[in-house]
Amino acid sequence: MLVLLVLSALAAALVAGKAHAYLPADDGITYRYTREQLVAMYPGTYFFAGPGGTTKLALTFDDGPDDQATVRILNILKENSVRGTFFLIGKHAQVHPAIVRRIAAEGHTIANHTWSHRNMARLAPYQARREIKDTQELLERLTGHRTALVRLPWGSASPEVMELVQKDGYRVIGWSADSHDWLEPQPSKILAGLDAQVRPGAIILMHSIVFPGTQEVTVRVLPALIKELKAQGYQFVTVDELLHIPAYG
Ligand SMILES: [Zn+2]
Fold first, then answer.
1. Which residues are catalytic?
2. Tens-place pLDDT, residues 3-28
3. At 131, is the secondary structure helix, strand, or coil?
4. Superfamily for 37-243?
5. In angstroms, what is the span from residue 233 Cα to ligand 1's centroid?
6. Which of 99, 118, 237, 246 could bridge 65 with an S-S bond, Cβ 3.0-4.6 Å?
């Protein structure tokens, strides 16, 4: 019994440690602005939700593609006739070009989540620009589309990064509802958490890779989530449709 208790405590500590490692070490400094402040500072460039008074929602999937979770998510979206937005990491797209093409071919929006998922607020401007440019060029080679939407890793924004991205003609997309699928392995908790956060026009953050300790929870929860939100009268659209902005330049 004691051994079991010690083992489960160790497992919990390991999961917590990994989850913490996912956050930027200096998040207390880089989250200087709330999302409402970013909207006010960069109108027309920064968005974290669509207009209210709509029945539309956007599902967004970050950090892929991989050849496991992304494929299963695409299958589920297809079965349910739902389109989403995939914020892809350049170095992952390079490894899975066929999956990038499949995402585009099935009518989902492809967007830019930087090349290597570094804390953009901590990079020199030339490095930050390169993280986006290299990803944009690869995604354009693979799909023929020039991505116009960027999501900053962890949502970590600084005025320097925002101005650079704005100058290069991109729009920055945050989120209004976090599924916590990178941390929480229980579908019921994810559903309850989203139920409390989802409003008309919500942009929902999920992930299309597998995080350690979560047992591919995104894939397990997605069919129930789609069913529940459809039953509440919501329709799923891509982020660009929700915000009435172009997905590609
Ligand atoms: Zn990410």
1. 62, 207
2. 444 344 334 333 333 333 344 555 44
3. helix
4. Glycoside hydrolase/deacetylase (3.20.20.370)
5. 29
6. 99
Q: How far is the CA of 117 from the centre of ligand 1 (A)?
A: 6
User: How many A from CA of 155 to the centre of ligand 1?
Assistant: 8
Q: What is the CA radius of gyration of the chain?
A: 18
Q: Whole-angstrom Cα distance, residue 217 to residue 137? A: 31
Q: What is the CA angle 57-60-63, rounded to 5?
A: 170
pLDDT tens figures, 206-223: 999 999 999 999 999 999
* Number of Cα atoms under 13 Å in the Cβ half of residue 187: 13
Ligand 1 centre and the CA of 153: distance in Å? 5
Helix segments in 144-184, DSSP class H: 159-167
β-strands 56-62, 203-207 pairing: parallel
**Does the reported pTM lie above 0.85?**
yes
Q: DSSP assignment, residue 142?
A: H
Q: Are 197 and 206 in contact (CB under 8 A)?
A: no
